[in-house]
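User: I'm writing a short report section on ligand binding and want a predicted complex to refer to. Could you take this sequence and (2S,3S)-3-hydroxy-2-methylbutanoyl-COA and write out the structure as tokens? A short remark afterwards would be nice.
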Amino acid sequence: MSDSPVVRLEKDGDIGLIIINYPPVNALGPGVSEGIIESLNTANADPSIKALVLIGDGRSFIAGADIRGFGTGRKHLPLGQRTYDALDASSKPVVAAIHGFALGGGLENALACHYRIAVPSAKLGLPEVLIGILPGGGGTQRLPRIVGAQTALDMITSGRHVPAPEAALLGILDEVLPEGADLRQSAVAFARKIAGVTPLPRVRDKTVTAEPGVFEAMRKSVARKARNQKAPYHCIAAVEAACNLPFDEGIRREAELFAELESSDEAKALRHAFFAEREVAKLPDLPRNVVAHEFTAPAVIGAGTMGGGIAMAFADFGFDVKILDATPEALDRGMERIRSNYATSVKRGSLGADEMQRRLARIHPVGGYTDIADSDVVIEAVFERMDVKKPIFEKLDDILKPGAFLFSNTSALDMDELASVTKRPEYVAGTHFFSPANVMKLLEVVRPSKASPETLMTAMALGRRIGKISAMAGNTDGFVANRSRAPFNSEMVILLEEGCLPEQVDRVMVDFGYPMGPFAVGDLAGLDIGAEGRRRRALANPNYRKLPIADKLVELGRYGQKTNAGWYRYDKGDRTPRPDPEVAAIIASVAAELGVPQRSFTDTEILHRLLFASVNEACRILEEGKAYRASDIDVMWLHGFGFPRYRGGLMFWADGIGVKNVHAQIAAWHQRYGERWAPSLLLRTLSETGTPFLEAKPAPFV
Ligand code: T1G
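Assistant: Sure. The structure tokens for the complex follow:
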């Protein structure tokens, strides 16, 4: 019997059970693969065992290779000596019994088994492309042999999780158990039923051919999303090998392609993003025994774009949610916008009509505050003015039950000030959604000084329960995401004063990997919105660096797409940004008035001017104790601003440049441009000590 603590061999009569126990998700961590092989060999040598079951302890089958082991130099088992080979060589049938997840190497082990069964809630997939690699355990060779080249290409280049019933329809599973069936007992019975079947059904013995043009078509379809990535194309090449080469040669080709990816920059960046998204949920300075409140009756105040989107986010995840606005007309407009948003999704085919109705039925417009008196969590999403928000918080404080939580969707206002108008400041926090609130995954949880740990945990959990990635932010102007982004927004306009054009900046950022250039994004959001924020900051801070070119456009009524003219011009009914000579003339005239010498720019300088400005501000945020960790800022940039995921995030990318190089460049721009480029204290310290941004020790959270 294997005594490996992570894998054990048990017997149930004449059936052997190979049981994996490597919490939390049975990744193929150290000793797991070796334990499976050892148990297989032991069972095959035991005449009393007629068939085998491979099953996971705890919450899941096998969730894949241990991603933490990548890039650490840990050696993989050589081809021919891996679990997949031992399963192929087994003289006794092995049944994979799947619950929870069979992902990556987990599904690949299941595919190397002779049979596969699962509980209905199980999810199966080959998500390796999402972390910049490809299924390196035979998945690119076995999956096409079961589901065909096209379906295998779709699954492997998307990395999506396939629910068990669909996996059965595709032929991946031999059986989906009835709801509530006991997996272990069912698997033993299944194994007993197939024991003695000859020849053993091995996936590798099947063949697969592809329709002509399938691979070229796939290369075209991944191009837009893949951008500068290699992994999606390597996935396609590996599946192509499954169709053109004998199995063992295909395995060798897969291994070659895998080796080219494992230590690639994109794989390192995507692994960083994966773990950063899990780290961000951890609040190290809160008591460990604090639990989030399980809210059941959310309500939203304000049926505008944000309020409506927030209500949709709740409905999308199964919550009944009440929504309220100042007047019935405003509420009707809000509901109309919600209905039209859902109808657009149905038209695009991303939402079924029935599901739309179910979601709409969960959104309950109500007439007044008394109708939400039973709510246990209320999110205020009204106009971004303190004199509008305060009376609402006072009223909510009066009518809501003790213990109800009051959250505000404000994007920058002082949460301490807002909490101070209530008698329950310990139940107040910021929940800053990003627009559109039902789409963008980032939820910035803003931490007022009097918020209780339970309130903070509840706000973070609220985000996760409606499909968001919650990230904690200190209560500072612009919180963390927008505050770190603000210098980027200024620098891009200041570049124009020196001779750049919007289309050049946008091209650089799209080439870098953004889905859309920042000037085009500005036109989409509306240039009048930004102007309001600039006016407020200029009033509050006499040293505020004005942006006369941006202000000039707004003065001229060029608000962006909504006025068919902003940084770009737009033909009627066409959202394509077109460079506008008028804008070039405005830029030239303002630059002349300012007397700024004009010059040309390299793409690198443009990129670094925008991103280094934000890296410097991110360092200030960390040194002020307004964020837990640099990787949280990466998560915010990935999910709040569309920073290209295969670059890992703002701070991960900056570490690729090198903290000393970033500091030297910022110090040089400090000499040339003055105070706005003064290196932050933390940046100077990290540079002097050669400490990477991601290892920065931020000040305690305040
Ligand atoms: N390796 C290491 N740790 C992992 C892990 C993995 N594969 N999957 C999860 N964890 C950790 C995670 O960091 C977190 O840790 C905890 O488990 C719970 O995760 C050969 C080479 C399985 C769907 O890409 O998608 O196989 O924060 O919070 O929301 O071809 O985890 O608690 O310390 O995400 O319930 C392919 C990645 C690997 C699956 C569960 N497999 N994992 O989600 O929990 S490459 C994957 C997930 C591979 C082969 C190739 C999800 C999940 P901590 P969680 P969850």
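A remark for your report: The chain has a mean pLDDT of 95. Residues 166 and 632 are 36 Å apart (CA to CA).
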